[in-house]
Design goal:
elongated; single chain; 4-stranded antiparallel β-sheet
């Protein structure tokens, strides 16, 4: 029976898409479908959908949506919903047919960009009069002429490729294009429910323009933080957003955390998601805040955040130059230019003795040469630390994995900035602009718009002076204690 299913799909592909004429496409078909389908024992459509869902995300690029999120999506169905769009339907397997069967009163349009996936989806819904499967890209205008009461989407995100600029979207990132494009297909009372990278909520530039556009033209109904790793294979923090037509009143703000294990998929276990916090804000509060940063929205209810709100502060980019270090292609042990890498950033200092070197004309690195008082933080990695650079007699630059913050010394002390970034509240602010989950990923552009408390420069210097004084005492005490400990151990071992 399994062979029969494969044969049906192959026949549709041969007829509709010319399989057998293009070796590359034939190879892709064999690679993507033959192995998983061979695991289906009965050839039932449900078995085919399960095989569809077992496709390796690394090979196919399919993002598998966990069962917990499917339940959140399904909770959006209401009796008056007539038309539903499920964008890139292959991502919703193995829950796609179950969703359609659970709400049979709706008319469904299921899209996919891949002709082979289209053939399989058509096979899955053979005999369903309320389901239309169509090819088309949600990253291009005109993929559909219809409007829908309910739209579900988990778009492509986290990649480095961009949509063709000729499309004239506000942003060129695929996930942001999908948001803008799908909104155009909402009916008069429609709702769009999407999973998107968390950077949508705080990033500046074109993404801020897109937020403002959505906020002004549509009704932002919900913004919810999802647990780290909810979407496997992306390594990004994600949020669920719900946007409808009409005027915005209150916006629901939720936070979900990982719950108990549900099932195994792709070699790992899926967890349930549990709502742990909920509040709401009004449109004017979002406009006043200037972004949709959930940490800030939740933190606005605690004392620490209220204190932060009531003190003088400014965007980091207004009082410092913020830039990435230089990409290094080749190291040279005899080079004259030292390079600070992430591994050289210690808790309080830089491991200057362990710096790599490169051999480059100084004119080629002139824009990256470090200066006294520069603050260095990792752009990516697993640990956040801020270190102040001390000028050396040799030329020193930072690698591209490091963000350099060069304070305007008339307004900002580098040591004071390090103290703030190392503080619990500073860590919260850094976490709020972090894009990664297990691996931290911070954009220097997002760092520029982070607001920091800014007391008078005289007060900053007083704090910095006391910090450095006590740090020297601490480090000396540690060195003396370690020296004494080694001496005692050596003496005791000698008496054995």
């Amino acid at each position: 029976m399994t062979e029969e299913v494969i044969g049906v799909v192959e026949e549709k592909l041969k007829k509709k898409f010319g399989i057998g004429q293009d070796k590359e496409q034939d190879g892709l078909f064999s690679k993507v479908f033959s192995d998983p389908i061979s695991m289906a024992d009965h050839g039932d459509p449900a078995e085919l959908e399960a095989a569809f869902a077992s496709l390796d995300s690394k090979t196919t690029g399919i993002v598998h949506i966990p069962a917990a999120l499917i339940q959140i999506f399904q909770d959006r169905f209401e009796p008056d919903i007539k038309t539903v769009l499920i964008a890139e339907g292959e991502k919703f397997a193995p829950f796609l047919r179950a969703t359609v069967d659970r709400f049979p009163y709706c008319q469904y349009t299921i899209t996919t960009q891949n002709p082979m996936y289209e053939a399989v989806l058509e096979l899955l819904f053979k005999g369903y009069e309320n389901v239309t499967v169509t090819g088309g890209s949600i990253y291009e205008y005109g993929f559909s002429d219809e409007k829908f009461d309910l739209i579900f989407s988990v778009p492509v995100f986290g990649g480095r490729s961009f949509v063709d600029s000729k499309q004239q979207f506000i942003c060129r990132e695929y996930e942001m294009v999908a948001l803008e494009n799908l909104l155009l297909h909402l009916s008069g009372e429609g709702e769009l429910v999407m999973i998107l990278p968390a950077r949508l909520t705080f990033a500046a530039g074109n993404i801020k323009e897109l937020r403002d556009f959505v906020q002004q033209m549509y009704r932002v109904k919900e913004i919810s933080e999802l647990p780290a790793g909810t979407i496997s294979g992306t390594g990004l923090k994600t949020v669920l957003i719900s946007v409808g037509t009409g005027k915005t009143d209150a916006v629901t703000i939720r936070k979900y955390e990982a719950g108990e294990f549900l099932s195994e998929r792709e070699g790992g276990k899926e967890r349930n998601v549990v709502q742990t916090n909920e509040t709401f804000v009004f449109l004017d509060e979002l406009e006043e805040q200037g972004d949709w940063n959930l940490d800030r929205l939740f933190a606005s209810q605690d004392d620490e955040w209220l204190k932060y709100q009531n003190i003088r502060k400014t965007q980091l980019g207004d009082i410092a130059d913020v830039f990435r270090g230089k990409a290094i292609n080749r190291r040279d042990k005899s080079g004259s230019i030292a390079v600070v890498n992430i591994t050289n950033l210690l808790e309080y200092d830089i491991d200057y003795d362990g710096l790599d070197t490169i051999d480059e004309p100084e004119r080629k690195v002139a824009n990256y040469v470090l200066q006294e008082g520069d603050v260095l933080i990792p752009a990516r990695g697993t640990a956040m630390r801020a270190v102040v650079y001390e000028k050396k007699p040799y030329t020193c630059i930072a690698s591209s994995n490091i963000i350099v913050i060069r304070p305007d010394q008339r307004q900002l002390s580098g040591v004071y900035l390090k103290m703030f970034l190392d503080s619990p509240f500073g860590n919260k602010l850094l976490a709020s602009i972090q894009q990664g989950t297990t691996v931290m990923n911070i954009s220097y552009r997002d760092l520029k718009i982070m607001e920091i408390p800014l007391p008078a420069i005289e007060r900053q210097r007083e704090l910095a002076e006391e910090y450095e004084k006590e740090l020297r005492v601490y480090q000396t005490s540690i060195q003396e204690a370690e020296k004494r400990w080694r001496s005692v151990v050596s003496r005791l071992q000698g008496e054995m």
